[in-house]
Design a protein that fits this description.
Largest sheet: 5 strands, mixed
Strand content: 35-45%
Number of domains: 3
CATH class of the largest domain: Mainly Beta
Shape: elongated
Structural class: alpha+beta
Low-confidence stretches: 14-35
CATH topology of the largest domain: Immunoglobulin-like
Order of helices and strands: HEEEEEEEEEEEEEHH
Mean pLDDT: 81
CATH architecture of the largest domain: Sandwich
Number of strands: 13
Length: about 180
Amino acid sequence: MNKKIFALAILGMFLLAGVTTISVAEKTETKMNNNTKNLDPVPHLYVANNPVLDFYFIKPGSEISTVLYPGNDGDEYSWLKWEITEWPEWGTWKFEPSKKGECPGGYYDTVYLTITVPNQPEATFSGDVVFVNTEDLSNSVTITFIVKTIKTRQLVNPMIQQFFENLFEKFPLLENLFNFL
């Protein structure tokens, strides 16, 4: 097919479809049948978790594991770069695979979090984990963590203590009930 005829055919298809392009220098959008699409897509940070994560009846010195889901609920073709910039100073906080990531519009990442709780019985710990869009610092999400530890009991006889440890290992709900009393 002749190149001129092919080019005219393509131009005719665009005219029939009602496509008009506004110069990128003037505006950053394309109009197609009165639908507007942004040529400079904007990412938006979103974390698909409750804004408060609380953990009760936690044994002092134990580990808590949870999963966080930072994502991009911005424009379809946007690209989000996020980072965890703050977390509490109490305990040990381990984020896997890391404290930063990237994802396209409509997708989210998975961050596995392990917290080693301080070895303090009958204590309440709280603090915030802050996620930030690294290209728009005004776009951030804060998740508050609350951890309440139980009081620990020391039994005099080590054999009795070993018995209860084995029992609680096999029946964890029984341990929660025992600690609640």
